[in-house]
């Protein structure tokens, strides 16, 4: 019964896009499941990319199980999707296992449809493909999506407009178009069959060439890390991936010397330019690394062009952010208080106005207002514990404790 309804659902889906003013053009020919059990689609940039499901005759998509409990989810069920269970720690391995079983099965499964980037991008490049869909080592068919419109109303990333606004903007256009192109089937070599990451890279290169865009070796996790760093105002946040790579090369990520330096002599009185502003030689001396091209690049990322020096607390805070990626934000804030306030974790109003925009994403005016509100006795200084006690009672600071089980959820006042 489900299979009999698929052509009807595909027709309704295509008509719904057309009714919304978006014409879908298909180029090339979709290979059969026997020729290519897996379809790899890129770039992924919008929720409107779901039109690919109708264009590929209801191929099986990979979808979170919790997304199935709505109207759209019921329709997706007709694709016989591969479910991902967010709460299952073995979800990734189980998903790969399911993809391998379907791709190599003799049964008449639909083709598996995968967006290997794992997240939405702005289509300016192809980021690193996740290797999950390449583990079976079977032939795949690359499929590209383009939106050749004068005005971009579809790109849905973490920095852009929300889904409802994009949908409204798209619906108000007189005409929008989407181009889907089926590229020739890609047959893996023996080496690619043994190395899914190599297979994924080579397929990405083929698709990037067809699209006329570059590739960028960033993963979904890298993009999420950079977005988080920018949101919090972390110094060097837009280059946090590169900073982390250099720290790994220099052994700093392993030794985490920056976390030890945070409790040293930098805080507690603002040691002044001789202490906090450093040149390349002093920068590398403090980190215990040689002055070479790697450490020089690390220095250059944080250097202030006007002085040619690095404000060392900025680097320490970025390094702490990278070292504490999976820790609660309150722990990063604790290190920030150490960097600016010393072992006592006590900062002045001016120091708090420096650290809060750098790790809480607060505007300077909001940071000053928060300091005055938290400094209940008007002493002109604030300890970490005092600020935490204040923040725990304010709903607007709940994001500090969102992943910290040791704190109660703040209540609005």
How would you characterize the overall build of this protein?
This protein has 413 residues and is of the alpha/beta class. It has 19 helices and 14 strands. A 7-stranded mixed sheet has the order 1-8-7-2-5-3-4. A 3-stranded antiparallel sheet has the order 10-12-11. Helix 3 links the parallel strand 3 and strand 4. Helix 16 runs antiparallel to helix 17 and helix 17 packs across helix 18. It is elongated and about 75 Å long. The C terminus is likely disordered. Keywords: Acyltransferase, Lipid biosynthesis, Lipid metabolism, Membrane, Phospholipid biosynthesis, Phospholipid metabolism, Transferase, Transmembrane, Transmembrane helix. GO terms for molecular function: lysophosphatidic acid acyltransferase activity; O-acyltransferase activity. Pathway: Lipid metabolism; phospholipid metabolism; Phospholipid metabolism.
Average of pLDDT: 86
Low-confidence stretches: 265-274, 404-413
Which sheet architecture does the biggest sheet show? 7 strands, mixed
Number of helices: 19
The assigned structural class equals: alpha/beta
Spatial arrangement of strands, main beta sheet: 1-8-7-2-5-3-4
- Rounded to the nearest angstrom, the distance between the terminal CA atoms is 56 Å
* Percent of residues in β-strands: 5-15%
CA-atom Rg in angstroms: 26 Å
> What is the approximate shape?
elongated
The total count of strands amounts to: 14
Considering DSSP H and I runs of 4 or more, what fraction of the residues is helical?
40-55%
């Amino acid at each position: 019964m489900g299979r009999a309804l698929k052509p009807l659902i595909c027709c309704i889906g295509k008509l719904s896009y057309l009714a919304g003013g978006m014409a879908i053009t298909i180029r090339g020919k979709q290979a059969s499941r026997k020729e290519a059990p897996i379809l790899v689609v890129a770039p992924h940039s919008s929720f409107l990319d779901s039109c690919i499901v109708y264009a590929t005759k209801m191929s099986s998509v990979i979808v979170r199980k919790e997304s199935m409990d709505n109207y759209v989810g019921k329709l997706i069920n007709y694709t016989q999707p591969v479910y991902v269970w967010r709460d299952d720690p073995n979800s990734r391995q189980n998903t790969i296992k399911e993809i391998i079983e379907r791709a190599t099965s003799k049964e008449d499964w639909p083709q598996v449809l995968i967006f290997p980037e794992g997240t939405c991008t702005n289509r300016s490049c192809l980021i690193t493909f996740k290797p999950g869909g390449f583990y079976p080592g079977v032939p795949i068919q690359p499929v590209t999506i383009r939106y050749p419109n004068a005005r971009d109303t579809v790109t849905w990333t973490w920095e852009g407009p929300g889904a409802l606004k994009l949908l409204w903007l798209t619906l108000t256009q007189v005409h929008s178009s989407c181009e889907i192109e089926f590229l020739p089937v890609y047959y893996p070599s023996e080496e690619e069959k043994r190395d899914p990451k190599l297979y994924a890279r080579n397929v990405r290169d083929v698709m990037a060439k067809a699209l006329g865009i570059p590739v960028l070796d960033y993963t979904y996790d890298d993009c999420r890390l950079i977005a988080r760093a920018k949101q919090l105002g972390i110094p060097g946040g837009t280059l946090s991936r590169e900073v982390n790579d250099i720290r790994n090369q220099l052994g700093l990520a392993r030794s985490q010397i920056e976390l030890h330096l945070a409790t040293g002599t930098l805080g507690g009185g603002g040691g002044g330019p001789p202490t906090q502003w450093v040149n390349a030689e002093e920068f590398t001396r403090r980190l215990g690394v040689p002055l070479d091209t790697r450490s020089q690049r690390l220095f250059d990322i944080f250097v202030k062009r006007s002085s040619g020096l690095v404000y060392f607390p900025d680097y320490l805070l970025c390094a702490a952010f990278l070292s504490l990626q999976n820790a609660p934000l309150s722990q990063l804030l604790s290190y920030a208080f150490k960097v600016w306030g010393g072992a006592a974790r006590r900062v002045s109003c001016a120091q708090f106005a420096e650290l809060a925009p750098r790790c809480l994403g607060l505007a300077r005016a909001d940071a000053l207002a928060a300091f005055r509100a938290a400094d209940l006795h008007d002493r002109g200084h604030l300890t970490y514990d005092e600020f935490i006690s204040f923040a725990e009672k304010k709903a607007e600071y709940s994001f500090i404790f969102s992943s910290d089980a040791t704190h109660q959820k703040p209540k609005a006042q």
